[in-house]
Design goal:
Chains A, B: It comes from Skermanella stibiiresistens SB22. Two copies of one chain form a homodimer. In chain A, the strands form two sheets. A five-stranded parallel beta sheet of chain A has the order 2-1-3-4-5, sandwiched between helices. Chain A has a four-stranded parallel beta sheet with strand order 7-6-8-9, with helices on both faces. Chain A is globular, with a radius of gyration of 20 Å. Chain A has helices at about 25-30, 35-45, 60-65, 65-75, 85-90, 115-125, 140, 155-175, 185-210, 225-240, 250-255, 280-290, 315-335; strands at about 50-55, 80-85, 100-105, 130-135, 145-150, 220, 245-250, 265-270, 295-300. Helices cover about 45% and strands about 15% of the residues of chain A.
């Protein structure tokens, strides 16, 4: 049934497009300098007999660990890997929680109550704790053995992902897994490659932002390591910061039910990465482009990713697509005039 | 912005409410008779050195394993547990895939191409395979070492969940974990307790079905083992079978962004179970009842669950809520006149 709506009030009162964060490249370069710390954390952990790696966080901080968790699980024969919402983790912890577990807890402010509580709880049970947050002095850091910080107020998700990628690489090396020799080069190319990606994608993202509407729910489909970008775009940027109905669906599930809602009354965004799960999103895109109306494909193949070795593009495409998701939110703010900082409830009412 | 819509065409042309499936109790009783087979599978697997349990499936078959995976992860110190979409599993398999992995593959028909392919792929890599499907003669069974079947066309999710619960119990016993002595009694109470639950909940579910609308997206929030019920209600019953915009969100993430869309333009269903994650949904309910308009709480505490020992209600509440989700779909069909069997694309076009 077509939903008849008044024309969107905000379209004629947009906001200026935010500039790409001036601290973007310096922040990510700073993250690369945490390599030695990541190696020390991994060395200590494996030396102390750690066998289980659990990432915890809430909302966007949960989603920012999906890339690392997926990367590790596909490569580590010796470690078990999980990514769990922090409140879920504390309420129903894995039975393996104990001294053999390294818990990597993420919270931008370092003050997210559930994540701080989960860190304290895990530490009491003997786990090793790593805080991933903005700075080195906050409650989460206080509850942890190590602090991996990125020092930026706005370059957050990509910074966390690169910190966790670095930690993942160190854990793999420490446990004797084969790591492609160019892995480090791919990571070091990212600060400028991701800046370039945003500049190049800006016109396309502006167009997508204009063609989305608050009246149509927006489904964000992706796969594998890029599910983090799909989660944060739908739940954080669209629902929280743009008051749009939205959700994320794994490409492997999309054609088993949800595709029935591919109609003129909903928008579909597909994040298409270059890792081994790409065939899943390709199949969705093929179907959606044949039958859908408001279908928007954001494909990392369109990005040069200068400096990233061709055979390792799949290792970093999820980070690149995450950055484009963040940038799409900027464009949506510009198109609608709805500030990304406006909230109904968050930090305004008790919950 | 209020979405002005014509009155729903289908509300005045409902369908008769389907009866509760006549095969409901016999099917679940039949499942209980698979106990010896579950014990044999577990005994063989652990005897052969299995350390990793991976559940695979697509869509509703993926979600029907969430209960067992959550149950096992919280109790097993010796096994690693994962639940992965079958296409994701084959595209980017866990590095641990090999002879020490037991892959439990679910597909109602036993013919889901991605799940059959994942089973064959895992078996080639040395894994032990268990098929969970309707019958004992289908492609998935052909690719597997064992077949756990439930023999019903319509009593599906609860049957799968009970088969997997039984297998989980056997795996825990086989690996020497403590299992509450009343665990079996709780399972044996379910066939009649779940029938009773549906009969008792029918009036309330009918009311919820009438108050949902296709114009408002419906968010289904839950936690822990009950996320399976939230997944299947939103993606299978609402999106696929009722053409409603819907999604599922973990209660631990809900207050970190998505709650900003708790408005008069969306519906919220909270599945509230009695496992250790209940505080997460209680917090959401408290917030939503204060600020929301179309908020519907489905709480297993309202069910007698006759015969289930009080202290084990949390082990089975997710199964009970899953059954109520299925029954809610029946009521929604009755209220809208939109047959649960109608499809736009599934099995009608190429994809």
């Amino acid at each position: 049934m077509e939903c008849v709506v008044p024309s969107e009030k905000t379209t004629n009162a947009g906001l200026p497009l935010r500039p790409i964060e001036p601290d973007f490249v310096p922040t990510l370069r700073g993250v690369l300098e945490k390599r030695a710390l990541a190696e020390r954390i991994a060395g200590d952990a494996i030396g102390q007999g750690v066998t289980d790696i659990v990432f915890v966080g809430c909302g966007g901080s949960y989603s920012s660990s999906i890339h690392a968790a997926t990367f590790l699980e596909a490569r580590s024969t010796k470690l078990t890997i999980r990514n769990i919402n922090a409140a879920e983790f504390q309420a129903l912890p894995p039975a393996r929680l104990g001294p053999k577990m390294l818990v990597v807890a993420s919270s931008h402010s370092g003050g997210t109550p559930e994540t701080v509580a989960a860190a304290k709880f895990a530490r009491e049970r003997g786990a090793r704790l790593v805080a991933v947050s903005r700075d080195d002095d906050n409650p989460l850091v206080g509850a942890s053995h190590y602090s991996l910080s990125y020092g930026s107020e706005r370059t957050v998700t990509s910074a966390k992902q690169m910190l966790l990628a670095q930690l993942s690489h160190a854990l793999l090396e420490e446990t004797g897994e084969r790591l492609d020799p160019a892995t480090r080069a791919a990571l070091e190319a990212l600060p400028t490659a991701l800046l370039e990606a945003q500049e190049q994608a800006d016109p396309r993202l502006a167009e997508i932002a204009r063609r989305l509407t608050a009246e149509r729910p927006t489904y964000v489909v992706s796969s594998g390591p890029t599910m983090g970008a799909a989660f944060s775009l739908s739940l954080c940027y669209f629902m929280e910061m743009q008051w749009m109905n939205a959700s994320n669906i794994d490409a492997g599930d999309y054609l088993h039910g949800p595709f029935e809602m591919l109609t003129e009354n909903a928008s579909l965004i597909v994040f298409q990465g270059e890792d081994a799960t790409r065939p899943l999103t390709e199949r969705v895109v093929k179907f959606a482009e044949r039958h859908g109306t408001h279908v928007f494909v954001i494909d990392s193949r369109d990005l040069p990713l200068t400096g990233v070795p061709e055979h390792l593009r799949g290792d970093v495409s999820a980070v690149a697509l995450g950055v484009l998701g963040t940038r799409l939110a900027d464009h949506r703010e510009a198109a609608t005039g709805h500030s990304l900082d406006e909230r109904r409830y968050m930090h305004k009412v008790e919950y």
